[in-house]
Amino acid sequence: MSSLHALTCRECGRQYPEGPLHFCEYCFGPLEVTYDYDALAGLADPRRIAAGPANLWRYCSLLPVDAGEKVSLGAGWTPLVRARRLGEELGLEELYVKNDTVNPTGSFKDRVVSVALSKARQLGFKVAACASTGNLANSVAAHAAAAGLDSVVLIPVGLEQVKVLTTAVFGGRLLEVEGNYDDVNRLCGELASEYPDWAFVNVNLRPYYAEGSKTLAFEVAEQLGWSLPDHVVVPVASGSQLTKIDKGFRELVRLGLVAPRPGRQPDDPAGPVRVSGAQAAGCSPVATAFAEGSDVVLPVRPDTIAKSLSIGNPADGYYALEVVRRTGGQLAAVSDEEIRAGIRLLARTEGIFAETAGGVTIATLARLAREGAIAPGERVVAYVTGNGLKTVEALAEGWASRERVGASLAAVVEAIESPRSHKEDQ
Ligand SMILES: *Cc1c(COP(=O)(O)O)cnc(C)c1O
Ligand SMILES: [Zn+2]
Q1: 352 with 97: CB under 8 angstroms?
Q2: Is this structure's pTM higher than 0.90?
Q3: Which residue, judged by its Cα, is nearest atom 14 of ligand 1?
Q4: Phi-psi sector, 294: left (phi>0), alpha (psi -120 to 50), beta
Q5: Tens of pLDDT along 339-369?
Q6: Is the Cβ atom of 101 under 6 angstroms away from ligand 1?
Q7: What pLDDT digit, counting tens, does each position of 293-341 carry?
Q8: Which among 163, 265, 301, 332 is placed 20 to 30 Å from 39, CA to CA?
Q9: If you measure from the C-alpha of residue 378 to the centroid of ligand 2, how many angstroms do you get, rounded to a whole number?
Q10: What's the CA gap between 304 and 281, in Å, rounded?
């Protein structure tokens, strides 16, 4: 199997055999997994995929992990919700929400970790490690526990309490660094040279980790009856997920698993699906570069309630910009107030409680719909990537809306019959 994939430098195209390597030794460009698509074409067909497990490993032929036991808690194959009520409010006729809040540890990070640690196990690693803004910490600690690997997880101070607790419970080492995520990430880069026998999922195993996000594109296409959306809205932290969703859609067209959208050629250089990115205004280095028409993503110091997206110096920011520009998408940055409103809007229209990153996506979707950057007739998918139970403190006090009543039938009926005493969510 392994001859089907290799590591290729995104800048100079040099190829490397598979292993724990993430940058090119000649030009320091990032490495990416590339495939022998002619050989893959015969292996991936809809019937074989449909006969696979109800998790992301149904796409194992399109992932860089050899046959054999996988590290899996069952991530993936999450609902694609036809969001009629939200669509009506936003004036969008065919809107879907990809509900990744229901993954085993409550975020899409379970996808990338399952792929990275399966590879790590194949390569013989015994220790799983990562730099995390919170969700990755949960996921690495949980998957490592299930796989019998030791784990060492580094997080910045000041994360949501739930994310710290739901990492610690799995029993690995948890180091809270007195700095921000970008400090943690730099330290992990240094630690990866200090401890070459540790699998840092988003450092030395990053090319494999990143491939896990392609399943967000594969599932949407399969759930749409092997067809494509016109436009997707994706939250951006490091930018990895956004670039791999685009890669996933392009692979499906290339392998003939889906037809391009009407009027498009299979080899259209723009790519088959418009990809828009969502950031918080308090950490918007990629959206800022987009607004300024620049190719240079200047680092920022994050200050937003969207902590899971708080990467001030995004590793894949440049490539995310490239995808958005090439596909004709947009990038927007939304305020903390818009994020809270986005969380409440999704909850009250679709019954889905998202974390702050989901609020960023929904607020961006609302903004793009309002401004006409998304046309009413487009088939749109919004990626909601994390569970609201992890970030309850982001919702201001007053939003735990309830009315105190006495413990008698008369008191309860009186409350029901009188106007609501708390302000209505808008
Ligand atoms: C990490 C994360 C993202 C963004 O991931 P990148 O690939 O780093 O851009 C989005 N949503 C949630 C909930 C996350 O935890
Ligand atoms: Zn190179």
Answers
A1: yes
A2: yes
A3: 308
A4: beta
A5: 999 999 999 999 999 999 999 999 999 999 9
A6: no
A7: 999 999 999 999 999 999 999 999 999 999 999 999 999 999 999 999 9
A8: 265
A9: 38
A10: 7
